[in-house]
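Why do we care about 3D structure at all? Because function follows from shape, and shape follows, mostly, from sequence. That is the central idea of this module. The next example makes it concrete: a single protein chain, its amino acid sequence, and then its structure expressed as tokens.
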Amino acid sequence: MFWERFYNLCLQNGDKPNTVAKELGFSTAACTHWKEGAEPKSSVLIKIADYFDVSVDYLLGRTDDPQSHKIKNELIDTVNQLTEDEAQKLLEYYQLLKSARK
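And the structure:
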């Protein structure tokens, strides 16, 4: 899954995988390993995700939404700005939603 996502992102940017790999400091042999099914280690995945502005989960095929990381980050930023009272109300609302799903 990783290779397909990486390859398609390269094409969408008008680049070739080997060119992107070199630009990010990886060998062309790394591309060959990825093409053969190897998954990059986490530090490499993060670098690639940052380069393309997509989530690591998208690169690994865990989500089909390449921008899912932005929604989560926005939510975290919003929650961090809440007062204690607002945070408590949000938690109660979340628990209500969660129990309604069951």
